[in-house]
Amino acid sequence: MTEQTKILVVEDDLNLAEMLSTYFRAEGYSVVAVSWGEDAIDAVEKTTPDLITLDIHLPDIDGYEVCRRIRRIRRAEHVPVIFLTEKRKREDKLAGLELGAVDYITKPFDVQELALRVSNTLHRSKLCMMGNPVTGLPEGRIVQEKLEKMLAQPEWVLVITGFEGLDSFRDTYGIVAADDVIRAARLIIGKALEVSHAGDEFLGHVETGCFIIITTPDRAGPIAENCLVRLETSIPYFYPAFDQGYGNSSFVTERLQVRSTVLRSADSQVTNLKELREALIQATEIHAIN
What we know:
The protein is of the alpha/beta class. The chain has 11 helices and 9 strands. It has helices at residues 14-26, 37-46, 63-70, 90-98, 111-128, 141-151, 166-173, 175-195, 217-234, 249-254, 273-284; strands at residues 6-10, 30-34, 51-55, 81-85, 103-106, 157-164, 202-207, 210-215, 257-264.
């Protein structure tokens, strides 16, 4: 049986919430409706929805803050969000789009128009699921299949590399700056592969700042070292001039960190994806693979 697409409706107008829930269920979606911002965050932490419709005016915290906090949840950072609001000012719309909202609909609205926008957004989202929307690299199911195939081999080696501390960086400098870091990391790692004389290595994006490279035993060491050196060298350029000095205490404590680790079949007892995930967590402290 095909799993239903999940929509989270965050709306404090109970009549509107009920109307949306009933309409979306009739369209074949699985719907969870909440009226409070904190309840929305709890719902996302328990089960990641495929799409969120989010009212800006909520009884406890506003929709902007809800969206901001949802973006910090690793599994939900790319879930499409459609803002529903009575606000019509341009700066309000820009504020929502800056937080990564994919659409912004003002009340009152035509429910059929909303349903069409939801359908189109979900379609685009599914097309993007095979590749990370920021780096364009394979992620999700493709990465899982590659890792399963790798584990079936008698000998394998995996390089895990990337940045830690992106959540704090995003909180301080914003989503756009954090995405720029991720894009740069992808280019830097690509260059590291090039100078390491890599062949047909598989490069995948498994989480916000974490990348994996399936390679060969003889090339794993040079690739990991080149990634480490190049990523570490790039860090100061991601910060504004004021924060580039290492004398700034906040810069030192919240500074991006680089992880570049090699995991080999000969050094581990990993036989399946669950064990591989546990090994990656121990090796890098990056919670990467579902």
